[in-house]
Amino acid sequence: MADKVNIFWFRRDLRLDDNVGFYKALHGKYPVLPVFIFDTEILNELPEDDARVTFIFLTLQNMRKELQNHGSSIAMYHGAPSEVFKTITSEFDVQNVITNHDYEPYANKRDSEVKNQLSEKEIGFYTYKDQVVFEKEEVVKADGDPYVVYTPYMKTWKSKFNADEDLRIYYTSQHLDNLLQHSRLPNLSLSDMGFKKSSIDIPDYDVTPTTIQKYEKTRNFPAQDATSHLGPHLRFGTVSIRKIVKKAIAEKNEVFWQELIWREFFMQILWHFPHTVDTAFRKKYDRVEWRNHKTDFQKWKEGKTGYPLVDAGMRQLNTSGYMHNRVRMLVASFLCKHLLIDWRWGEAYFAEKLLDYELSSNVGNWQWAAGSGVDAAPYFRIFNPTTQIDKFDSDKKYIKKWVEEYDTDAYPEKMVDHKEARERALSTYKKAVS
């Protein structure tokens, strides 16, 4: 067996610099073996050309190349993490496994199983905070209860925030000599895992001073495509949250900064209330009698509802894996209120399609649209999908880009009348929650 090693397990932190767990591992007593596991528990649910899998794979290959310049690499495995660690610990004399915190219910279960398995072999398992500024119980009410409304959470978040401490950069480049000197570690191809390269690319993020400074003026207009596209990069950790918060503060943009805090608000909600993945935070909303009409759901998915802004959003999603945030609110409201289809159906479809899919934010925003979540919109707030065009796409530029047959005889008729659908939704919701 080889010399003693510590393992650093890459997961939602696909970068070499400013990575807390990786930094801690490199400062340890033993050489570091970097690993990544393509988890079959997750991958088995995905289509063979999933763009996120391609993005992760290509990012890892670039990281491997960089580490090979230091005589090392990243060992890549495909399987259930518990089984993979049996293989790793049989091939290497592992002393400790180091990784960064993950907060989702499945991740908690997975990490608990791996920790217990390793402890039987007297191998340590250590995790660190990396993907957020504040986590778990770090921002709570005076009595220790979690916040369930964003604004007071945000104010407490800011009152606790100390840039010098909370935005420390964990530089690793000077410590890469503590990697295991082994450049031919196990590698994989997409085809080895039953995948193929996706035709959809995840775009680079844009956090230039101009983008941040103009953020609140331009973010609501989908035709301008003026948002940062940070979502997938924060989701997979190709960029450090600390560096992004630093940029927001440097540009003195409160709105941009507060969007980053929204992300952490939903993450702590999921941590404290994991049941909200599939049940309403406000229990009475689970009494809503959804129509769940499969043909209507299919029309919504395909962007053939007869409401142009809704259809443009869904077609953008299906084509690119992205949808403008303003339009996400509208299509979600339309599904839940106009069609009376369960928010969980929409959440699952977004999970399948969104490049920046983040469980906590997706669940939080879908429950907001359905009126069933924390800090939710009241059930009687129902977006008018026609007047939304006047507000946010008045020249129809966004609509015309994604709905080619718009304003022709080929465009479908409205599948529901707005006024009638609104009255039906109000009646159904009132019956459930009163």
Automatic annotation (TrEMBL):
The answer to whether UniProt assigns keyword Flavoprotein to this entry is yes
Q: What positions does the entry give for FAD binding? A: Y215, F256, E259, L260, I261, W262, R263, E264, F265, F266
Q: Where is the Photolyase/cryptochrome alpha/beta domain?
A: 4-133
Q: Which domain of life is it from?
A: Bacteria
Tell me how the cofactor is bound: Binds 1 FAD per subunit.
Keywords on this record? Answer: Chromophore, FAD, Flavoprotein, Lyase
Tell me the Pfam families matching this sequence: DNA_photolyase, FAD_binding_7
The protein's matches in InterPro entries, at most eight in alphabetical order, are given as: Crypto/Photolyase_FAD-like_sf, Crypto/Photolyase_N_sf, Cryptochr/Photolyase_FAD-bd, Cryptochrome/DNA_photolyase_1, DNA_photolyase_1_CS_C, DNA_photolyase_N, Rossmann-like_a/b/a_fold
Q: Has the keyword NADP been applied to this entry?
A: no
> Residues of the signal sequence?
none
One Gene Ontology term of the molecular function aspect: FAD binding
Residues the record marks as site: Electron transfer via tryptophanyl radical: W290, W343, W366
Q: Which cofactor does it need?
A: FAD; (6R)-5,10-methylene-5,6,7,8-tetrahydrofolate
Entry's Gene Ontology BP terms: nucleobase-containing compound metabolic process; response to light stimulus; response to stress
Q: Which family does it belong to?
A: Belongs to the DNA photolyase family.
Q: What is this protein called?
A: Deoxyribodipyrimidine photolyase
Question: Which species is this UniProt entry from?
Answer: Cochleicola gelatinilyticus
Taxonomic lineage: Bacteria, Pseudomonadati, Bacteroidota, Flavobacteriia, Flavobacteriales
